[in-house]
Design brief:
- By secondary structure, the protein is of the alpha+beta class.
- It contains 3 helices and 7 strands; from the N terminus they run E-E-E-E-E-E-H-H-H-E.
- The strands form 2 sheets. The chain has a 4-stranded antiparallel sheet with strand order 4-3-6-7. The chain has a 3-stranded antiparallel sheet with strand order 1-2-5, with no helix packed on it.
- It is flat and about 45 Å long.
- The protein starts with a strand and ends with a strand.
């Protein structure tokens, strides 16, 4: 058995984040000035191989940046035609609707509500866990 995971350590004084990824394909996203960019770091899922190392990648952050961490239950939600949420423009539209005055909680709610509405016709066997964490950089 194995599990995927992503972990980020943010230094608020230097405005940097160290990120390591263990096979998690729902990459964290950086929203800066209305632009959405995936934060790419690669690694094998935990438990796949004994003694494997993980490399951390450093990212510079700026005041006003928004970081979005999510599980694959968001990006893999499927509509009645079997199309995944990540294959549509809906994710980009929701993220693009975020404004600087929105709270992190409102951003989380907007993303979860849209993905679950999109995947409302999924069967119990198709459903996956959904977790979203939003970090606003001050």
């Amino acid at each position: 058995m194995n599990v995927t995971m992503v972990i980020g350590l943010i230094n608020s004084e230097t405005k940097t984040m160290h990120l390591a990824n263990a096979g998690h394909h729902a990459h964290p996203l950086l929203i800066r000035d209305g632009t959405v960019e995936p934060l790419l770091a690669k690694g094998m899922p935990l438990g796949m191989m004994v003694g494997i190392g993980y490399r951390q990648v450093e990212f510079s952050l700026q005041s006003g940046d928004v970081l979005v961490f999510m599980t694959d239950g968001i990006i893999e939600a499927k509509d009645s035609d079997g199309k995944e949420y990540q294959e549509t423009q809906r994710l980009a539209q929701v993220l693009g609707s975020f404004t600087p005055d929105m709270t992190a909680e409102a951003m989380v709610d907007a993303l979860i509500n849209d993905a679950t509405t999109f995947g409302a016709d999924m069967t119990a066997e198709e459903e996956d866990d959904i977790t979203v964490v939003v970090v606003k950089v001050l």
